[in-house]
Description:
2 copies of one chain form a homodimer. Chain A is an alpha/beta fold. Chain A is 49% helix and 12% strand. The first copy, chain A, has 2 domains: 5-182, Rossmann fold (3-Layer(aba) Sandwich), CATH 3.40.50; 187-289, 6-phosphogluconate dehydrogenase C-terminal like domain (6-phosphogluconate dehydrogenase C-terminal fold), CATH 1.10.3660.10. In chain A, the strands form 2 sheets. A 6-stranded parallel beta sheet of chain A has the order 3-2-1-4-5-6. In chain A, strands 7-8-9 form a 3-stranded mixed beta sheet, covered by helices on one side. In chain A, α4 (82-90) runs parallel beside α5 (108-118) and α7 (184-210) packs across α10 (246-268). The longest helix of chain A is centred in the last third of the chain and has 27 residues, at 184-210.
Amino acid sequence: MNSQASYLPSKVAILGPGLLGGSLLMALRQKLPGVHLRAWARRREAVAELEALELAEICSDDLAMVVEGADLVVICTPVRTMAVLGRQLAKLPLAKGAVVTDVGSVKAMVVAGMEEALSGSGFDFVGSHPMAGSERAGLEAARANLFEGQGCLITPTLFTTDRALGVVREFWRLMGCRLLEMGPEEHDRCVARISHMPHLAAAAVTLAAMQDDHSVRLCVGNGFRDTTRVASGNPDLWTGIVFENRDEVLHAVRAARDRFSDLVDILEKLDEDKMRQFLRESKVLRDLAAPNV
Amino acid sequence: MNSQASYLPSKVAILGPGLLGGSLLMALRQKLPGVHLRAWARRREAVAELEALELAEICSDDLAMVVEGADLVVICTPVRTMAVLGRQLAKLPLAKGAVVTDVGSVKAMVVAGMEEALSGSGFDFVGSHPMAGSERAGLEAARANLFEGQGCLITPTLFTTDRALGVVREFWRLMGCRLLEMGPEEHDRCVARISHMPHLAAAAVTLAAMQDDHSVRLCVGNGFRDTTRVASGNPDLWTGIVFENRDEVLHAVRAARDRFSDLVDILEKLDEDKMRQFLRESKVLRDLAAPNV
């Protein structure tokens, strides 16, 4: 038995089994056949769906029953509900010592909220953000290999214990993720630019292309399909995400608007050299960011 | 022998064998084993590369030799060189009666230029635009199935003959394309919105995300990868394309800049309802445009 194996959890509670939570249950069942799985959902219908799919030993809307004795709790609900769940967890006397993490796309407010909520409760929190979303949502889109080969950002703070960090690292490695660690604020600055703003850009491009004439859709090719794919995401979820990270998103959206103003200017002035320079610089950066196209 | 078969060409000349031209040669060889293939390239090294790959019976930088006796000529050079090639074709006495088409991403200026250049020459032109580009370019990225299942826009005008239209329709169907016909101006309006502006948007998003801090690339996930994929395209080719379609592109880029200004406004005013509405409307349009994600 090596030291790493001691970090593998034996009882895992997944709170909020949508796309991410459902995929975690499937992956855990596959990779740790002996693990004891529990799933909590707020709605009775969601619990019934979980039971029908036999994704966990215990499926319930009773939080206390689900987390009792768990050594790892993963919160997979929308970012804005996380602090509420954290405060409910803090009141439970049943799972002291469990490591708690989450899958939220925003970290500064979530981590601060969870650390405050769980302070002194015996739960041991560290935030994480697996970069494995999809424009599809819900349990019906879940799959065991969703995390395989994807990045997972882990966001420790001064309050994070070595034990929690060790458990959470080992857990995401088991899920197949490449790990990266940074503070919650640094995380939010990065994902505002690399995920949240591009999400809003996909929506803005779709509206600008189609808003006043739907017929242009007949000409859609792979370029439009890829450029706007994320605009098919859940509008309510994403409204929550961008407002939870509002300052950094605003900064990135202003930068994008300014680049569009540059483009208008370049086209108005027929400045081909500047256009070439604009496209060259962005190609260099894009090839740097995602070399395997 | 059915009436359609009579439209299939027996000698095809491909001018400019990069990604699109090279893929056409490969697809033709596969689908019409008896066809006689010719390829023209401006540069000697490109001719040598063609010869090494044995993609055509005749590979040459001598335009007259390549088009002699061809019944179909497909121009696959960058859009700005097309009219020049058209004027050179018009001077050749060797291929009268051949149908000529192109693969340009811009149509109004190309079609007008070609119709003028070939007027009275005996060549019979109709424009086409297979929506099968790629962020990769050049002969080394070519493949026989590039066009399979892709849309191809054909842009007849009042000068287009039934014969030319019949030959070109049959040709792209053979390549595996879904056909759509519209006038050159209508084409340019559509692709400015659905292809050229989204291309510039991918570049603008990349610059806004990364320009002042390359380290954010560590957080790149599938969303950024897809949203910005086309920004890896060839900067010189795309500068030519957007300036050849400058008025329509400017219109679409202004619309996109205005949507970004809306986003800045929404975030500044903390108007969550408006954000939800923005994302909902774009999701409806995006799902309408590309239902199979």
